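Private note to self, pasted from the team thread so I don't lose it. C-alpha cells:
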C-alpha cells in the first residue's frame, strides 16, 4: 500500500513529497499516530491460534443499503479445520460490532464477546477429520482507524481499507467480519453484497451472481478462489460501472476491471493507460500473475491506496486523466506478487511486502520509460532513508525486525526498496530474476520470513546470501565508498577505496562494486571488485589507453550514501540538483564532442561532506553557473585536483547570495566547505 506523506525536509534541502505531486510516498505514520494513537488500542495477537485451527473459507453475506449511513448487517459462515483435540473454545476477532447469535454445525452455541475477542464454545465431541462450520450473525457500525484505514462511508461510497495503522495488530478484517486477523491464516472467500438496486457491490475475485431481489434490492456475489489473509479481503459499494479490458499474460489472458463512477471513466482509462506495461514488467521479473482478475476500484479516499487482492482500493484523485500517479498504480499492482501472493510472515518482515513493492515503482518506470528516467526514484528514496527516516524513527534501523511503531515507516518502504535494488546488483539481473521467480513458485499463497528468504535463496541459487542479509537487512546504516588515493600512470591506475560508515560500526562484507575506468581513446573498461576491509588498494595495468578518470558504481547498481548526476550532450538549460546540495547548474556553452561530466555529493560520514566532479572536457574548466549550498555566510570553498591531494582555496572568484555560493568555472576535482 502507499499512503500520502506530509512535506519532508532533509537538513539543507527541502523536498516537497506530497502525494498529489509525488506518488512514490507512504503515509507519515508517526504524524498519524500522534493524532490518533491510544495506548488501549493494543490487542491480543492471533498468531498463537495457528496451532489450534485453520480457517479454510469464509462465506459472507452483507447488507449495505446506504453508503452514507455507517451500518452493516452480516452473516458469516466459516469452515474451520480444528488441528488438535481437547479444545474447549475457539477464538475469532470481531471489533466494534454486535454479535447476535452463533451456531456451530447448525446448532446454537454460547459465546463471549470481549471486544475484539470472540470466544465460541465448542461441542464436547468433535472430529479432526472434518471441518466444522461456524455461523456468526452480527451488525453494527464498522469503524475507521484513528489514523489510516478501516471502513469508510462517504460521498455515496462504502468501502474498506484493509489495515489500521493505530491499532495492533494492523490487520483490519475484524472490523467488518469475524476472522482470524493475522498475516498467516489464509482462506478463500465467497462474498455476497445486498444493496439498493441503484448501487453495485464489488468484492475480491470473480462475479458469480448478480440478481434483483424484492423491495428494490440487488444481490451480487463474488468468489475469491485464491487463499488470502483477512486484511486483503475487500468490498466496495457505490453507483459504479465497469470498464473491462484484457491482458495477454504469460500463462493466460487476464481480465482487467476498472471499477469507477461513470463520469470518471475516460479519465481512469487515460491515467491507467500503462497498466499493461506494468503487468509485463512484473511478469518478466517475478513470473505469471496468479489471480483471477486485475481490479482497480476507485474510492474517494484522500490518503493513498490499498492492495486488496484483485480489487485494489484506488483513490479518485489518482485518476484525473494524467499520468502523475503512475507509480502509485505500479506499487499497488506489484503487491499481487509481493504481499498478496507471498506474504510477510509477521509485521517485522514487512519490508518483503512494502520494500519490494516500492522497488517495483522503479522496475515499472525502467521498463516503461528507460533506466535514466527511473534513476531519480533511487536517489529520492536514498534521501528519505538517509536524512528523514533516522529523525522520524529514532536513528538508523535495520530493515528487518522493525518495531511495531515503524511497521509502515520509511526504513521499511524506502530503504527496503533500495535493499531490493541492491539484491538485484549482488545477484545480477539473470540470477535475481531466477531467484525471485523461484520465491514466487515456492511460497505462492504462503508466508515468508526474512530468515526463510535468506535460506531459500542460498539453497536455490547455490551461493551464500548471509553476507548480503547481514549487510543490508539485519544491520542498520549505510556504506559511503570513497576513492581516497589515486595514482594514474602510463596505461595504468592505482586506487585506494575506503569504506566509511553512516549509522553503524561494522564494515560491510563481500560488498560487490564496479569501478569504471574512462580512457583517453574515448572508451571505458569496467572492473568488478569485492570490498570487505576498511581500505583496499587496487592496481590495473596494461590498459588500452591512459586513464582519464575513474568512477565507482557508474550505473547506480549499488545504492550507497552518495547522490550523483551524469551529464552528456548538455545544453544551457538550468537544472536544480537539490539532492546534491546544488540549487542551480547551467552550462554556458554547448557540449563538445566526447565531453561528459560526473557529479557526486558525499554527505558527511566519517569525514566531511564534499562534492566530486570528474569527466572528459575540452580545456581546463567548463564555464557554467553552479550554485552550491553554503552552510554559513563565512564558509569558504576549498578545492583539490584529485583524491589524496591537499585542499586549497578554490582558485576562481565566486559570490554568496541567499545561502548559496555561485561559481562560474567548473574545475575537475573535489570541493568542500571550510572556514
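Design output:
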Amino acid at each position: 500500500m502507499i499512503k500520502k506523506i506530509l512535506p519532508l525536509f532533509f537538513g539543507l534541502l527541502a523536498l516537497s513529497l506530497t502525494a498529489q505531486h509525488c506518488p512514490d510516498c507512504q503515509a507519515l505514520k508517526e504524524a498519524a499516530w500522534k493524532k490518533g494513537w491510544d495506548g488501549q488500542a493494543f490487542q491480543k495477537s492471533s498468531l498463537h491460534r495457528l496451532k489450534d485451527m485453520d480457517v479454510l473459507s469464509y462465506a459472507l453475506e452483507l447488507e449495505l443499503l446506504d453508503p452514507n449511513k455507517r451500518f452493516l448487517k452480516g452473516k458469516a459462515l466459516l469452515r474451520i479445520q480444528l488441528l488438535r483435540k481437547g479444545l474447549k473454545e475457539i477464538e475469532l476477532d470481531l471489533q466494534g460490532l454486535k454479535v447476535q447469535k452463533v451456531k456451530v454445525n447448525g446448532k446454537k452455541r454460547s459465546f463471549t464477546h470481549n471486544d475484539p475477542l470472540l470466544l465460541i464454545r465448542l461441542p464436547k465431541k468433535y472430529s479432526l477429520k472434518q471441518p466444522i462450520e461456524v455461523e456468526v450473525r452480527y451488525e453494527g457500525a464498522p469503524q475507521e482507524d484513528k489514523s489510516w484505514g478501516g471502513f469508510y462511508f462517504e460521498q455515496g461510497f462504502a468501502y474498506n481499507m484493509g489495515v489500521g495503522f493505530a491499532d495492533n495488530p494492523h490487520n483490519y478484517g475484524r472490523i467488518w467480519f469475524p476472522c482470524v486477523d493475522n498475516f498467516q491464516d489464509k482462506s478463500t472467500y465467497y462474498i455476497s453484497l445486498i444493496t439498493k438496486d441503484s448501487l453495485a457491490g464489488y468484492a475480491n475475485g470473480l462475479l458469480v451472481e448478480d440478481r434483483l431481489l424484492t423491495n428494490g434490492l440487488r444481490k451480487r456475489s463474488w468468489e475469491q478462489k485464491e487463499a488470502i489473509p483477512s486484511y486483503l479481503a475487500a468490498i466496495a459499494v457505490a453507483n459504479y460501472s465497469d470498464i473491462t479490458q484484457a491482458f495477454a499474460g504469460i500463462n493466460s489472458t487476464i481480465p482487467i476491471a476498472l471499477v469507477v463512477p461513470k463520469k470518471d471513466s475516460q479519465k481512469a482509462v487515460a491515467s491507467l493507460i500503462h497498466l499493461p506495461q506494468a503487468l509485463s514488467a512484473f511478469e518478466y521479473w517475478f513470473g505469471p500473475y496468479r489471480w483471477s482478475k486485475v481490479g482497480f476500484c476507485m474510492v474517494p479516499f484522500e490518503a493513498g491506496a490499498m492492495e486488496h487482492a484483485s480489487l485494489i482500493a484506488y483513490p479518485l484523485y489518482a485518476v484525473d486523466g494524467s499520468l502523475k500517479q503512475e507509480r502509485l498504480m505500479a506499487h499497488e499492482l506489484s503487491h499481487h506478487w509481493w504481499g498478496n501472493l507471498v506474504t510477510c510472515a509477521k509485521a517485522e518482515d514487512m519490508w518483503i511486502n512494502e520494500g519490494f513493492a516500492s522497488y517495483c515503482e522503479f522496475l515499472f518506470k525502467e521498463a516503461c520509460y528507460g533506466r535514466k528516467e527511473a534513476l531519480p526514484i533511487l536517489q529520492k528514496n536514498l534521501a528519505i532513508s538517509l536524512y528523514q527516516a533516522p529523525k522520524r524513527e529514532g536513528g538508523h534501523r535495520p530493515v528487518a525486525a522493525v518495531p511495531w511503531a515503524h511497521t509502515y515507516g520509511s526504513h521499511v518502504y524506502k530503504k527496503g526498496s533500495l535493499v531490493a535494488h541492491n539484491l538485484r546488483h549482488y545477484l545480477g539481473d539473470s540470477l535475481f530474476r531466477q531467484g525471485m521467480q523461484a520465491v514466487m513458485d515456492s511460497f505462492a499463497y504462503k508466508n515468508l520470513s526474512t530468515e526463510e528468504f535468506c535460506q531459500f535463496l542460498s539453497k536455490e541459487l547455490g551461493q551464500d546470501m548471509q553476507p548480503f542479509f547481514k549487510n543490508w537487512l539485519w544491520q542498520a546504516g549505510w556504506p559511503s565508498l570513497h576513492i581516497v588515493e589515486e595514482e594514474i600512470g602510463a596505461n595504468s591506475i592505482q586506487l585506494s577505496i575506503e569504506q566509511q560508515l553512516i549509522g553503524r560500526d561494522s564494515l560491510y562484507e563481500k560488498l560487490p562494486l564496479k569501478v569504471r575506468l574512462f580512457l583517453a581513446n574515448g572508451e571505458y573498461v569496467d572492473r568488478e571488485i569485492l570490498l570487505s576491509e576498511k581500505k583496499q588498494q587496487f592496481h590495473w595495468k596494461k590498459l588500452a589507453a591512459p586513464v582519464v578518470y575513474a568512477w565507482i558504481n557508474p550505473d547506480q547498481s549499488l545504492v550507497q550514501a552518495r547522490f550523483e548526476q551524469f551529464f552528456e550532450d548538455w545544453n544551457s538549460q538550468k537544472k536544480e540538483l537539490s539532492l546534491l546540495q546544488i540549487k542551480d547548474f547551467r552550462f554556458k556553452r554547448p557540449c563538445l564532442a566526447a565531453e561528459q561530466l560526473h557529479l557526486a555529493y558525499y554527505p558527511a560520514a566519517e569525514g566531511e561532506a564534499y562534492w566530486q566532479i570528474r569527466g572528459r572536457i575540452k580545456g581546463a574548466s567548463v564555464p557554467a553557473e553552479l550554485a552550491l549550498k553554503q552552510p554559513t555566510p563565512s564558509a569558504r570553498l576549498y578545492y583539490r585536483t584529485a583524491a589524496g591531494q591537499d585542499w586549497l582555496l578554490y582558485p576562481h572568484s565566486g559570490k554568496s547570495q541567499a545561502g548559496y555560493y555561485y561559481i562560474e568555472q567548473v574545475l575537475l576535482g573535489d570541493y568542500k566547505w571550510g572556514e
